[in-house]
Amino acid sequence: xxxxxxxxxxxxxxxxxxxxxxxxxxxxxxxxxxxxxxxxxxxxxxxxxxxxxxxxxxxxxxxxxxxxxxxxxxxxxxxxxxxxxxxxxxxxxxxxxxxxxxxxxxxxxxxxxxxxxxxxxxxxxxxxxxxxxxxxxxxxxxxxxxxxxxxxxxxxxxxxxxxxxxxxxxxxxxxxxxxxxxxxxxxxxxxxxxxxxxxxxxxxxxxxxxxxxxxxxxxxxxxxxxxxxxxxxxxxxxxxxxxxxxxxxxxxxxxxxxxxxxxxxxxxxxxxxxxxxxxxxxxxxxxxxxxxxxxxxxxxxxxxxxxxxxxxxxxxxxxxxxxxxxxxxxxxxxxxxxxxxxxxxxxxxxxxxxxxxxxxxxxxxxxxxxxxxxxxxxxxxxxxxxxxxxxxxxxxxxxxxxxxxxxxxxxxxxxxxxxxxxxxxxxxxxxxxxxxxxxxxxxxxxxxxxxxxxxxxxxxxxxxxxxxxxxxxxxxxxxxxxxxxxxxxxxxxxxxxxxxxxxxxxxxxxxxxxxxxxxxxxxxxxxxxxxxxxxxxxxxxxxxxxxxxxxxxxxxxxxxxxxxxxxxxxxxxxxxxxxxxxxxxxxxxxxxxxxxxxxxxxxxxxxxxxxxxxxxxxxxxxxxxx
Length: 626
Prior knowledge:
Blueprint: H1 3-31, H2 35-48, H3 53-65, H4 69-82, H5 87-99, H6 103-116, H7 121-133, H8 137-150, H9 155-167, H10 171-184, H11 189-201, H12 205-218, H13 223-235, H14 239-252, H15 257-269, H16 273-286, H17 291-303, H18 310-326, H19 332-343, H20 347-365, H21 367-373, E1 384-388, H22 394-401, E2 407-408, H23 426-430, E3 443-447, H24 455-464, E4 469-474, H25 477-490, H26 498-512, H27 520-525, H28 536-544, E5 552-556, H29 557-562, H30 564-575, H31 598-619
């Protein structure tokens, strides 16, 4: 080596040592928040030697802290070009993309950092979080396991793993992960909440109860755990114990609306009406837009589960009127007030509140219509109706339709006027719809899936609206029956097993299948109706004996589930409207239940096959249900 070469090597080494010192100085300034000093120090180092990746990495962190993310990205990339094996630069670049929610780019750079340095556990944790954002749950689970393998003492890694497992509905594994997080850090209340959630979903009531009692032993003043424990006990039907824990929650924290609501529910089950109503009113006073309490009170009105006396009704009326003053753009207090007025026979006053609900809805869903025709808001009438079937997807279909600019919603999707609420009168019914301006191609309607089974609904509807367009969406009767059973079971009114109720109903159907009395009337008289409601032919014959076939559109549920845009377009064509594509076709109220065994499915397939074939022949439509 020449003297000059040796001198240059020595000089470069001296520079590197100097730059390392400057880098440490810049990092120190950065940690103290002295960004200008840190930036000046980085620039001094870069002047001395521009090809050190380390200083570019630090310079980038300074620039990023100053808020210049674009320049920061350039510095990180330059550091990587200088030293492609610099894992920290990849990691910092990934963090930059993470902050910008560029999940794919963040994932790629985290993976590069891990490849260069596979022993840094926090690399895996950040990669797992990015994968969660991409909904790559299985990959996230694997990555979190790797982080835990390297460092098994960080509670948040187990919590992150639990969240990924929860997304995959692997409840048992998730509960183990959350419990491990609690073991490491028993003071983090969110871990208990996450554990409670998965135990609750897995219906492990005893384990859930134990978890919260242990928590209360550690922190007896934690109101949140009293509430959660009350909620779990309530779900187990231990009402007196639940009430005691709800009340303890209120003693510790009196301003929680949802606690008052749930305490009201428990008191209602004990038939302590005055106390229950007082809790519901308190919940509304604390949070005038708490939807769940209005929904509960509406259910009392709709299903007549209990009879409220005049004093209780007056209290609720006053409560709703006060809530309206506080939250005038909320709809539920108007709706509940209108329902009470309807019950009292004040149909005209009730109608004004129903129309207020419509106007608020239309301002949100159809702002152009509300702005242009708001002064025309008043009782209207439907020009289309979805008549069935129960558990056939009517909620999803109706939701898709009313997003069209020319399809206006009713007050509620299901009005049950022609089969249950007919005594309320036609004025009440018309007040549920927006008034449509003349000479304009707007549609409005409702979707009561029980109409298809009601013989009375056919004639009543025809008397009032003989030209109305009717839509029926039919589902494979086997899937419909199973879904219907589990819905009723979840409501708490069906305690028998699926196999038992099906056996009972099959016996009744088999006994009468060759009888001349086998008709829609006979099917309406059968209890239960899980299978009977799938014999669509007999019910549709009643409708098509009254309404012309051209006023009917028959759809297949399976087609809508598979291709919602195509099915929705069929309806728009039927109504004479232009097509309208949605950004998302959400499946509303999907059932979640175990598959039925093969033998039972075969029995049901044999039962329904001849009826399905007759239906196909009658309608001229192939359903291909198996």
